[in-house]
Amino acid sequence: MIYLDYVSTTPLNQEVNHMYQSLLNDYFANADSLYSLGLKTSALMEKSRELTAQLLHVLPEEIIFTSGASESNSAAIKGCAFQYQNRGKHIITTAVEHSSVYQSCIQLRDVFGFEVDFISVDASGNLDLKQLEEAIRPDTILITMMYVNNEVGMVFPIEKVYQMIQKINPKIKLHVDMVQALGKMPIDLTHVDLASFSAHKIYGLKGSGVLYKKTSTSLVPLINGGQQEHQLRGGTSNTATHTMFAKTLRLALENLEQKYQYVTSLNHYIREQLTQIPDIVINTPSEHVSPYILNFSCVGYKPEVILHALEMYECYVSTKSTCSSHKSDISRTLQAMGIREDIAKSAIRISFSHHTTQDELDEFLFYLKKTLKTIKKQR
Ligand SMILES: Cc1ncc(COP(=O)(O)O)c(C=O)c1O
C-alpha cells in the first residue's frame, strides 16, 4: 500500500495503541468518582494534561481535552464570540479555513447576527495583511485563522498578525488552528489566546484533541454539564483517550527537525518529477509552505477518476480536504488563490510522512503516469 493522505489522517502509533487498550481495561472508572478507582483514573488524565502542557510550554490549566480539532475550533470560535459579544460582534477569519472554522463563522453570522470578514490570499497563497489590517475595527473581538493550510500547505504569519493586533486593538483574541503544524514544525503559543490540535493527525487516536486557552481568555461553554475540563466541556471524561494525548504528542515531537528535513527532500523530489509530466500543474507555491503537503492538478482530468484508478494499485491520495470530499464544488482555498477554474477542478492533494519512502513515491509516479495514459480527459 502507498498511503499519501497523511493530512487526512495517520495510522495509529502501535505504542499508543497498546497502552490505550490496557487503559480501557484497567482504568474504566469515572474520573469524577470519589473512590480510589476514580481518583487513579483522574490522576492519569491529569498527568497527561501536565505533560501536554509541558510539551507545549504552557500551563496545565490552559489545556482542555476535546474530541478533536473540529470541536476545539467550534468551542474556541463560538465560545469566544458569545463571551465577548458585549464588546462587539465583528470577527475576522480567512477565505481558506477548514470547514470547522468556516462553518462556525458562518453560523455566528447567519444565526447569531455577528459580522464576519474573510481575508483573502494572493496567487502564492500569502495572506493579504493589508486587507487584514484594514478589516480590524473597534468592535472586532476575534481573529481566527489556520497556521498551516490543509489543502495547499501555505503557512500563515501568525507572529505578524499578533503584532498587528497589539498595535491596533490588543483586546482582540487570536485563535489559531494548528492542526497541520503540530508534530511537523515548532509551535509557539506565546502570542495566541486559543489554539486547536488533533491527535489523529499525529499518529494518535481519532476523537481526541486539545484546545489551548490562555488563562486570560474566557469562553462560554458549548457543552453544559458537570465540572469536567474546567466547566468548559460537560460530560463524563473520555479518560483513556485524553490520557493518550500526551504520549502521542511526545512521540510526534521527537526528532522534529530531522523529520522535517527528510520530508522536505521527498517533497523536492516529487515536485521535480511531477513537473515533468505533461498536463500536470503544481498548485502549492514554492515558498512559505509546509513540505508535508503538495497540491497539484492533472488538467483536464476528473480528480475522482484518478483517485479511484490509483486506488486499484492500493495507492491512496485525496482530491481536497477530506471533510468536504462529498461536495462537488471547487476547493475554497484554490478559488481564493485565483487558480483557473479548470485547474482548480482537477486538483489532487498528496501528503507525506517521515514514514514515506522515495520508493513509494516512485511507485506512485509510475501508477499516476499509467493512469493518465489510460483514462480519458474530460472535454
Ligand atoms: C486544518 C484542520 N483543522 C481542523 C481539522 C479537523 O480535525 P478533526 O478531524 O480532529 O476534527 C482538520 C482535519 O481535517 C484540519 O486539517
TrEMBL record:
Residue ranges annotated for the Aminotransferase class V domain, each copy included: 2-364
PROSITE patterns assigned: AA_TRANSFER_CLASS_5
Record key words, sorted: Iron, Iron-sulfur, Metal-binding, Pyridoxal phosphate
Xref: InterPro entries: Aminotrans_V_dom, Aminotrans_V_PyrdxlP_BS, Cysteine_dSase, PyrdxlP-dep_Trfase, PyrdxlP-dep_Trfase_major, PyrdxlP-dep_Trfase_small
Reported cofactor(s): pyridoxal 5'-phosphate
Pfam short name (any one): Aminotran_5
Signal peptide start-end: none
SUPFAM superfamilies: PLP-dependent transferases
Xref: Gene3D superfamilies: 1.10.260.50, Aspartate Aminotransferase, domain 1 (3.90.1150.10), Type I PLP-dependent aspartate aminotransferase-like (Major domain) (3.40.640.10)
Family, as annotated: Belongs to the class-V pyridoxal-phosphate-dependent aminotransferase family. NifS/IscS subfamily.
Protein name: Cysteine desulfurase family protein
Species of provenance: Massilimicrobiota timonensis
Lineage: Bacteria, Bacillati, Bacillota, Erysipelotrichia, Erysipelotrichales
